C-alpha cells in the first residue's frame, strides 16, 4: 500500500529519459507543477522540441548515461526500451524519486491520473495495476466536477481567509465554512452576494 502525498516540484530538477509521447505526457504534468525539466533523448516530439526552443526545458540530445540523473530530485524513465528504462532505475540513488513507466516494480512512486480544476486536484491511482482503469475513473470524475469548480475553489479560498481573519467564535467559524461548501450554495447564481447574506445572518445570531 502506497502513501499518497502532494509533492511540491517548484524549481526542483526532474529528469525525463525518453522523448516520445509517453515522455511528453509526463513532461506536461511536470511543467504544470513548475519543475525544472531536463529531457534526455536522441529524438523528441514536436511539443518537447517547442518547449526546448522556448527555453522551458533543457534537452540533452543523447542516449542515457548514469551521470544524467546525478542531480535529479525526481526521475522518470519513459523510453520504449525496457533495458534503457532498467538502466535508469539502476542509476537512481535510494534518496531519489524514480518512476519507470513500464515496470512498477522498479519504481518508488507512481504518477496518478489527474483531474485539475484550478486549486482543486483529484488524483486517481491503482498503484500501477491498471493505468487504463485510473484514466476511466478520472474521466468520470471530470464529468462530475466541471470547469466551473476552478472558480468555486478560488471563491472558497477567499472566503476562508476572510472568515479566519474576521470571525473569532469557533462555532460560527465552522458554521460558515461548512455552509459555503454546501451543494445548494455552490449552485447559487451569485456566490459573493449569498456569502454576504450568510455572514450577516450567522454573525447576527
TrEMBL record:
Its EC number is 1.3.1.76. InterPro entries: Met8-like, NAD(P)-bd_dom_sf, SirC_C, Sirohaem_synthase_central, Sirohaem_synthase_N. Pathway: Porphyrin-containing compound metabolism; siroheme biosynthesis; sirohydrochlorin from precorrin-2: step 1/1. SUPFAM superfamilies: NAD(P)-binding Rossmann-fold domains, Siroheme synthase middle domains-like. Coiled coil: none annotated. One of its GO terms (molecular function) is precorrin-2 dehydrogenase activity. Keywords: Lyase, NAD, Oxidoreductase, Porphyrin biosynthesis. Residues 117-143 form the Siroheme synthase central domain. It is an enzyme of class 1 (oxidoreductase). One of its GO terms (biological process) is siroheme biosynthetic process. Pfam families: NAD_binding_7, SirC_C, Sirohm_synth_M. It catalyses: precorrin-2 + NAD(+) = sirohydrochlorin + NADH + 2 H(+). This is precorrin-2 dehydrogenase.
Amino acid at each position: 500500500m502506497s502513501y499518497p502525498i502532494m509533492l511540491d516540484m517548484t524549481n526542483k530538477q526532474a529528469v525525463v529519459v525518453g522523448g516520445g509521447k509517453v515522455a511528453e505526457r509526463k513532461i506536461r504534468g511536470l511543467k504544470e507543477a513548475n519543475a525544472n525539466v531536463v529531457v534526455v533523448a536522441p529524438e523528441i516530439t514536436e511539443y518537447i522540441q517547442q518547449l526546448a526552443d522556448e527555453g522551458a526545458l533543457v534537452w540533452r540530445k543523447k542516449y542515457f548515461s548514469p551521470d544524467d540523473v546525478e542531480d535529479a530530485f525526481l526521475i522518470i524513465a519513459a523510453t520504449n526500451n525496457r533495458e534503457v528504462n532498467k538502466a535508469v532505475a539502476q542509476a537512481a540513488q535510494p534518496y531519489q524519486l524514480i518512476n519507470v513507466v513500464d515496470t512498477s516494480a522498479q519504481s518508488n512512486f507512481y504518477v496518478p491520473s489527474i483531474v485539475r480544476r484550478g486549486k482543486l486536484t483529484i488524483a486517481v491511482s491503482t498503484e500501477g495495476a491498471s493505468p487504463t482503469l485510473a484514466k476511466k475513473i478520472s474521466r468520470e470524475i471530470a464529468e462530475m466536477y466541471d470547469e466551473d469548480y476552478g472558480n468555486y475553489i478560488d471563491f472558497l479560498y477567499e472566503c476562508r481567509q476572510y472568515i479566519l481573519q474576521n470571525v473569532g467564535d469557533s462555532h460560527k467559524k465552522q458554521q460558515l465554512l461548512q455552509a459555503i461548501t454546501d451543494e445548494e450554495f455552490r449552485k447559487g447564481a451569485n456566490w459573493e452576494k449569498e456569502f454576504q447574506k450568510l455572514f450577516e445572518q450567522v454573525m447576527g445570531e
